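Notes from hallway chat w/ T.B., transcribed later so I don't forget. T.B. wanted the structure written out for a chain they're using in a teaching module, and asked if we could keep both sequence and structure tokens in one place. Agreed to drop them here.
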Amino acid sequence: MGEYLQEFVDETTWYNNLVLGSLLPSKLWDPLPHILQTWLRNYIAGNLLYFISGFLWCFYIYYLKRHVYLPKDAIPTNKAMLLQIYVAMKAMPWYCALPTLSEYMVENGWTRCYASISDIGWVMYALYLFIYLAVVEFGIYWMHRELHDIKPLYKYLHATHHIYNKQNTLSPFAGLAFHPLDGILQAVPHVIALFIIPTHFRTHIGLLFLEGIWTTNIHDCIHGNFWPIMGAGYHTIHHTTYRHNYGHYTIWMDWMLGTLRDPIDDEGKKVM
């Protein structure tokens, strides 16, 4: 077991060397304990992902394709986007504590993670990944819904994110503009799933960072209309009604529990 757990430590060490070794002098990070190196790597990688994905997407939809996807009055101001960046930057150090903790638990053998797909084969990998995503979808739906339904949680945590409640106040940079504890709570299902479902470690890390790209996408107000994906059209309705479309990747939980509101139907009602 000790040799097998060492594979996880070797993998996280490789990630640390890749990110930190490429961007910082070794004397600044090499003396740090492994867990602090991991946090620093997550912090730098998280910031890079947030700014690169946010700037590229804003450049594409607000400048390169200006007025193609959104009317002029739906484009957020630079001031609004800078405020979102400010909120996200205050929370980022705390966000990075969650993947750091999950990696620590994996390295110590507390979860059901496995190191290589060859350990179980591609068929079981695909099956477990499907179950993992279903558990995460279920968990995030209920966590998000309770952040609305439990009034103190909404008032002191989730309301920070819902000040962006119109198209011209939403942007890709709003994707991580949460109270730190709110953002962590909504990502916790990713970690809880590790204790329930055999999960490929590298896939888990990739999915956590995919959250950064996904939240950028669903706050751009552009309806991709790709059923059953919970895209930006659905999420924009969530920001304007507060009572619909709590789901994360898909519409299934909202459909089953009666909280789904379709952007195409919504647009039809406005026209009528």
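Follow-up for T.B.: Residues 34-64 form the longest helix (31 residues). Might be a good example for the class.
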